[in-house]
Specification:
Mean pLDDT: 89
Number of helices: 17
Strand order of the largest sheet: 3-2-1-4-5-7-6-8-9
Largest sheet: 9 strands, mixed
Shape: globular
Number of domains: 2
Helix content: 40-55%
Structural class: alpha/beta
Radius of gyration: 27 Å
Order of helices and strands: HHHHHHHHHEHHEHEEHHEHEEEHEH
CATH architecture of the largest domain: 3-Layer(aba) Sandwich
Low-confidence stretches: none
CATH superfamily of the largest domain: Vaccinia Virus protein VP39
Distance between the termini: 57 Å
CATH topology of the largest domain: Rossmann fold
Strand content: 5-15%
Length: 478
């Protein structure tokens, strides 16, 4: 891979930078520089297209702030002009006091230019050394965004950086869902071109990116590609770092101007949602464990401080009748006995067909939290729920993550909701008044220990005697 060493070089530079202490900082700083390089390549492409059509082109970025004005100035022959390139304190002063303030003034408009002001108001330059920043700029300048092959390679490397960020700690994990899991969720939901896809807690936009990749393979006409680019994928994200990562991730995947808004999704009053606001597919892994303020809870019919439960209500409301969803949520949602949990399970079962529940092992996510994936269709009540309990033959972890092969049996059995050692169905009519949907595999044979206390004591005694015998044999060797 031509660009792999370049990404490694950038990380090596940032590792020596005082202002960058973790993978989260690395991806943030890489993202704003990559975005400006992408924007420059896009401008050059648009200018060339306009020239071929004998039309004029007005650049988005004003003279003096373009990539080749400050980041990589060129001589008349196109060579890198080292004599006029800003470096050291001069470079940091320009970036912090001129470039960022200029970019932060962008507002409104359409297309990629509408994202500039939001992005640069959400982040700051953390690279304090003008010499380190100069080295980063020179590395990034070698990256190109013009062809699909170049973007594909950059996408792979950017996703690898996101994976490292997800493993770096709790905050990074908030933005990263394992891509093999996302791909299989998208496959089960099966979004079609011409319909809309939404993630109201999009993080790094993993679900939207994988949905685009999945749907792009079905493109047959130019109009299909235009539909995917402009009116298919929609996201919302609160955190500034996640927002810029989401924008950059979607751009690298091929979406030129992502429809992602920086906002607190939960501040929207569900009573105000109209049919025009709804979506055909919802794919999400909303944050859980956090608590929302009482005034935010007033926007929801079932009031609770648990953010994941508020998001689930949001998704049910925003899903169009006949639409499908795949939502990751903490497994305790299925069994908690508090009023909000019971009411929300009842609402889900009555308003939607919860046809599939995928039970995931704890180590799918680095935090070790047990989760499930809820697959449901809105507009018809649930009669029967099909469960699948994922039981990989190995222990999952950072060095041994979930892969797509682990999920293949689930995908195959889910098509027909077949029963197996790991799958079973539950009739909703058989549920108790708490609508308890706990994962209880009836096909799993529990090994019962029928030994008496005396049997166990004798086994312990025999093991101790065996240990002493072996120890004596070792001592006799000396």
């Amino acid at each position: 891979m031509a660009y792999e060493q370049t990404f490694k070089n950038i990380d090596d530079i940032l590792f020596t930078e005082e202002g960058c202490s973790s993978e989260l900082d690395y991806i943030e700083q890489k993202s704003w520089v990559l975005f400006l390089k992408y924007l420059d390549d896009l401008e050059k492409t648009r200018q060339m297209e306009a020239l071929l059509k004998d039309k004029s082109y007005t650049p988005i970025i004003a003279e003096g702030y373009r990539w080749n004005d400050w980041a990589m100035p060129r001589t008349a022959t196109g060579e890198y002009d080292t004599h006029n390139a800003l470096v050291g304190d001069d470079l940091i002063e320009f970036v912090n006091l001129k470039l960022f303030p200029y970019l932060r003034k962008f507002s409104g408009g359409s297309g990629v230019e509408s994202k500039i002001g939001v992005i640069f108001n959400a982040i700051s330059n953390k690279i304090a050394s003008g010499y380190n920043l100069r080295d980063v700029l020179e590395q990034v300048d070698t990256l190109k965004f013009q062809t699909s092959e170049q973007r594909h390679e950059l996408t792979f490397l950017y996703e690898s950086s996101l994976n490292k960020m997800g493993n770096a700690g709790r905050n990074g994990g908030q933005y990263y869902t394992p891509r093999p899991l996302i791909r299989k969720i998208v496959e089960i939901v099966n979004p079609e071109i011409g319909k809309t896809v939404y993630d109201g807690a999009c993080g790094s936009a993993g679900f939207l990116c994988e949905a685009y990749t999945y749907m792009h393979e079905k493109v047959k006409r130019t109009a299909d590609e235009s539909t995917l680019q402009t009116s298919t994928f929609y996201g919302k994200e609160l955190k500034g770092l996640a927002y810029i990562i989401a924008i950059m991730n979607m751009i690298l995947h091929g979406i030129e101007s992502p429809n992602i808004i920086r906002t607190n999704t939960l501040t929207e009053n569900l009573a105000d949602v109209q049919e025009k606001d709804r979506f055909d597919y919802i794919l999400a892994n909303p944050p859980f464990g956090a608590k929302e303020r009482p005034e935010v809870q007033e926007n929801f019919p079932i009031r609770t401080g648990e953010t994941a439960y508020l998001f689930l209500q949001h998704f049910i409301k925003y899903l169009r009748a006949g639409g499908s969803a795949g939502i990751v949520i903490k497994n305790t949602f299925l069994s908690n006995t508090d009023n909000a949990s019971i009411a929300l399970r009842k609402k889900l079962l009555e308003e939607c067909n919860l046809h599939t529940v995928l039970d995931l092992p704890a180590k799918v996510f680095q935090a070790g939290v047990k989760t499930v994936v809820l697959f449901f269709k809105k507009g018809e009540p649930t009669r029967k729920v099909w469960f699948y309990q994922l039981t990989p033959s190995r222990t999952l972890g950072k060095t041994n993550p979930l892969n797509e092969d682990d999920l293949q049996e689930f995908v195959e059995l889910q098509r027909t909701k077949a029963e197996s050692a790991n799958s079973w169905s539950v009739d909703v009519a058989s549920l108790d008044e708490n609508y308890d949907l706990s994962v209880k595999n009836p096909n799993k044979v529990e090994v019962v220990d029928e030994r008496t206390p005396q049997d166990i004591a004798e086994e312990i005694k025999a093991l101790n005697e065996d240990s002493m015998r072996l120890l004596d044999e070792i001592m006799n060797l000396f």
